[in-house]
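call fold(seq) -> tokens
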Amino acid sequence: MKHFLTIVLLFCTALGFGQTPNPYAQTDAKMSQIPADLTLSAAGIARYIDTNFKTTSERIRALYYWTASNIVYDVPNMFEPNQLDSPEEKIDKALRTRKGVCIHYAEVFREIANLLDIHTVIVSGYTKQAGIVSPISHAWCAAKIDGQWYLFDPTWGAGYVDKQKFVKKLNNAYFKVVPQKMINSHMPFDYLWQFLNSPWNNQEFYDGKEMPNKPKKDFDYMTEIARYEKLSENEQTFEEAARVEKSGLKNALIVQYHKMLKGNFTVLTANKNIDRLNELVTKYNEAIVYFNDYMMYRQRQFKPAMTDEELKAMFQTVKDKFLYCNDEVYKIGSVGSQNAVMFSDLKKNISSNLSALEKQEAFLNDYLSKTKIGRKLMLSGRG
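ret:
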């Protein structure tokens, strides 16, 4: 028996020499010891990583390992991901069921990374394997580490689909990938997230190489990303749609994504216009209050008395408020069909009140031009 054990041990040792050592083994082992109760939330996972790993490299590795090792690809729903769920709902579902498609992996990865103060974004696009472009869109992540952007695909890192079944197998090839390598298999819809100084267009991705004699393009993606992140959501969507179109609407996935961006831009613009409309309604109601105050003062025959200059100033304030509303209401664009009637009514009401103001202004000017006796006769209705 002793001789048999020696042979087995020698066999295992020889086998070990043929394997590639895992440079992340220590980090992976420690991450696998995370208490189960902490894995029910992104905050719990982030807390464990923050406590047990000090460097950014260790933390991003621990996150990649956990996400790729603990979420199983949901093959039955690979063609029908629920796009209506919020990011929070996607994260909750993935952590609760331990299942999901690419967007669930990406949302979990991004949320935890950002909780760890590692600037991370989700990249949307499509992929290619063995020269074949996938018919479904894909989502992966990019993280800025030590001033450089690297790419991570925890979905492909979790395993692969074989005959409609998910085979769980950790793959380190999609951990901390440099942009120049990732572009061979992952094509962002928006070339901003290629992180290349000479971005590929969609035809080049299909061909698997840059066009011959391609003009040198010095695209400062670092500066462009920094500028992009300071824009409003509406401005970001508008610029992204332009970049997607510029890169070529090569396939149905790109066309669909471009259409979605244009739809989002329309909705965002309408929402922004609705916000402006609501602000204007507040200003209009304020103008009405001032107008009513003036009319009540007139009904009291301008008592207690004001100087002529004070009376003129009082009326001018009312007029200025309605003129402001009249100017601003025509600067507001589309507010959607649901608000169209209210918007139209507001325009009519502002116009009607301006007409009423003209009559009141004519009366006031006539009133101020008269003597005291003439004024009394006007206010009594005999002037």
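Residues 326 and 351 are 7 Å apart (CA to CA).
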